[in-house]
Design brief:
The complex is a heterodimer of chains A (319) and B (311).
Chain A: H1 2-17, H2 28-63, E1 72-74, E2 78-81, H3 90-100, E3 107-111, H4 116-119, E4 127-131, E5 134-135, H5 139-147, E6 155-160, E7 163-168, E8 173-175, E9 178-182, E10 189-193, E11 196-200, H6 201-206, H7 209-226, H8 234-250, H9 257-267, H10 291-304
Parallel strand pairs in A: 9-11
Antiparallel strand pairs in A: 1-8, 2-3, 4-5, 4-6, 6-7, 10-11
Chain B: H1 8-15, H2 29-63, E1 72-74, E2 78-81, H3 91-98, E3 104-109, H4 114-117, E4 125-129, E5 132-133, H5 137-141, E6 152-158, E7 161-167, E8 171-173, E9 177-180, E10 187-189, E11 195-198, H6 199-204, H7 208-223, H8 231-247, H9 254-265, H10 281-301
Parallel strand pairs in B: 9-11
Antiparallel strand pairs in B: 1-8, 2-3, 3-4, 4-5, 4-6, 6-7, 10-11
Classes of the chains: A alpha+beta (319), B alpha+beta (311).
């Protein structure tokens, strides 16, 4: 008991002088080793997620060649990254960029199976230097150039290591929508600018299985294709949901997964269920609001398409 | 569930037909029904999160008391709320399904804690504590450190009748915990005296042992009187927090792996300069691994579990 009293006194004393406890010291070199190892594991985990997002996005874009109307482009099926600023990026991004040798040129980070990039043998780390003889310095320039490729040739100048060569890709037209995999503090999906959007790693972890992840990605592709502004209006949400269901069905995903996903998503975001949005009081409604209306509309659309939509979202339960 | 075998192109075309305009003004009946169904599920889910948090947290407070100095408050083992303490979008469903109104409504009573021992039941409306009327659940569950000692005399309403209960006095470390609905994996020991844990953290810390590591850390912040977060503080909070979790019988060997997984999943936490207020997750994992061995050795020698003085 005296030992305990002494410990209590010690804690009280520590509080009084804000002195440190006898917490174990961490040798800096051990921390650095651990940081490098964990950084490499984080990179591997991120690349696996990129591969998944790129594959699903490619399947959806390829399936939407008619559904997406005029908003189409030639597809690569490659996820690209490039170094824009030379800032201090932190352990993770430095490890990622260094591992793949990402420099100032758009660099392949992931390849969707069966995509034109995959069929042409593009690999992680390949640098894209030019398209049909015209140099592309930025990913955005490449995206713009792909919009004008309708048929015929698609030749990329590729840098691999110190070698450069031209690679011909089959021309495949699909929805013009580019999705980045971001980190963020919310399980969210959104628009950047033009036809570029993002989905966060939190959302990738939240979605159960590829069908649910496809529902999220298809929803964002739909917004980009429909040209919705940042933070779409509720009516645009319904239109995006509808196109997303079509894209999922056309790509062979289970369209009804959207119901399970958005219903479970609303469990911990009850302010999105209806119009009473305490977080957004006095402002325009947030994107993805009014989940109830969206679910009713999606269920009706699926029913009309002959897809039975069971409302069987299982709540996430504590272990 | 896979869609039935329909030509996918046909399905896609039917689905892509433009939809009718969204209803404006009052909600359509089927939308109203959907709103109620979703809110009901969200309310049940929030209560489940609160129950889990309480179940993991209260033992840490009770078992850690003698490490907590004067940072103490009564432990009740109760989840309760007034209408105002419920997230706005859930107030209607909370009223409808759990009778939450302006009075303090008991929503859950954890077996084996004073609320249960004193006969409090879920559904009770608590009107008075120690002769004082209360209009906040925070007054009941002791979010502010209390100087009064001794049993809690409670006047409550049950099925229209009035009853007086006496809850045994059990003290624990300050303070009670509550759920905050947010995705980001985080927890805070707030100055107002409530320890907040996000729903994102509750998902990420899927094992109760992991959640206990997070809760021990936050209780330690209160105990150590940390007002601002600094890497040095965080290190001490990790260290003391691990002792707190160990005393409550949790398997603290999960702690280093938990912060490593955090580092892999939230890679900004790898760097102290990015994760500005905290040590990088590698530093935390290494320090925690030493602390786990230290605690295990004390347990094997039968020595009381108390942190070491500064060296």
């Amino acid at each position: 008991m005296t030992r305990l009293a002494a410990a209590a006194a010690l804690v009280a004393l520590t509080v009084a002088c804000q002195a440190r406890l006898g917490a174990p010291a961490v040798p800096p070199e051990r921390a650095e080793t651990a940081r490098t190892e964990l950084g490499a594991e984080a990179v591997a985990a991120y690349l696996a997620d990129v591969e998944r997002v790129a594959s699903i996005a490619h399947r959806l874009r390829a399936a939407g060649s008619t559904l997406c109307g005029d908003a189409t482009s030639a597809l690569l099926g490659a996820y690209l990254l490039q170094r824009i600023r030379d800032d201090d990026l932190g352990t993770f991004w430095e490890a990622l960029l260094e591992k793949l040798g990402v420099g100032e040129a758009p660099t392949v980070v992931g390849v969707a199976p069966g995509s034109p990039a995959a069929r042409a043998g593009l690999e992680r780390g390949d640098r894209i230097l030019a398209l049909n003889g015209r140099a592309v310095g930025r990913t955005r320039e490449l995206q713009a150039a792909l919009r004008h490729v309708r048929s015929g040739e698609l030749v990329l100048r590729i840098g691999r290591g110190s070698a450069e060569r031209d690679v011909g890709l089959p021309v495949e037209i699909g929805c013009d929508a580019w999705l980045a995999l971001d980190f963020g503090v919310e399980a969210s999906t959104g628009k950047r600018r033009g036809r570029e959007g993002y989905v966060t790693t939190l959302f990738v972890r939240f979605a159960r299985g590829d069908d649910e992840l496809a529902a999220v990605i298809a929803h964002e592709i739909a917004h980009l294709v429909l040209g919705d502004p940042l933070g779409a209006y509720p009516r645009q949400e319904l239109a995006a949901d509808r196109l997303a269901l079509g894209l999922c069905a056309a790509a062979g995903f289970d369209s009804a997964a959207a119901l399970r996903l958005w219903e479970r998503w609303s469990l911990e975001r009850p302010w999105l269920v209806t119009r009473n949005l305490e977080w957004y009081r006095g402002r325009r409604e947030p994107p993805h609001g009014r989940i109830a209306e969206r679910l009713v509309a999606m269920r009706a659309a699926l029913l009309a398409a002959g897809i039975e939509a069971r409302a069987d979202a299982t709540p996430r339960t504590a272990p | 569930m896979r869609p039935p075998a329909l030509p996918s192109a046909i399905v896609a075309l039917v689905l892509a037909v433009p939809c009718p305009a969204a209803p404006s003004g009052d909600l359509a009946p089927e939308v109203r029904a959907e709103v109620e169904r979703l809110q009901s599920a969200a309310w049940a889910h929030l209560l489940e999160l609160e129950r889990r948090l309480l179940r993991v947290h209260e033992p840490i407070r009770v078992q850690g008391l003698d490490l907590c100095g004067d940072k103490r408050s009564p432990v009740l083992g109760v989840v309760a709320a007034t209408r105002e303490e419920v997230p706005e979008s859930l107030r209607d469903v909370a009223a409808r399904e759990s009778g939450v109104d302006d009075a303090v409504r008991v929503l859950h009573v954890e077996p084996g804690f004073p609320g249960d021992a004193g006969g409090l039941l879920a559904g009770d409306r608590v009107l008075e504590v120690n002769g004082r009327r209360i209009n906040r659940a925070a007054r009941l569950v002791g979010r502010r450190a209390r100087t009064e000692r001794g049993p809690l005399r409670i006047v409550a309403e049950r099925e229209g009748g009035r009853l007086e209960l006496e809850l045994p006095f059990v003290e624990g470390c300050f303070s009670p915990a509550a759920v905050m609905l947010a995705d980001v994996e985080n927890a805070w020991a707030t100055q107002s005296g409530v320890l907040l844990v996000t729903s994102g953290m509750l998902s990420f810390a899927a094992r109760d042992d992991e959640l206990a590591v997070v809760l021990g850390h936050e209780v330690a912040h209160h105990v150590l009187g940390h007002v601002w977060s600094r890497p040095v503080y965080e290190q001490d909070a990790d260290y003391l927090g691990l002792y707190l979790a160990a005393r409550a019988g949790y398997d603290i060997s999960v702690a280093p792996g938990f912060w490593e997984r955090f580092g892999r999943t939230v890679p900004f936490s790898l760097d102290q300069r990015v994760w500005y207020s905290h040590p990088g997750s590698p530093e935390r994992a290494i320090a925690l691994r030493s602390a786990v061995s230290e605690i295990r050795a004390k347990r094997e020698r039968g020595v009381p579990l108390a942190p070491e003085p500064p060296t």
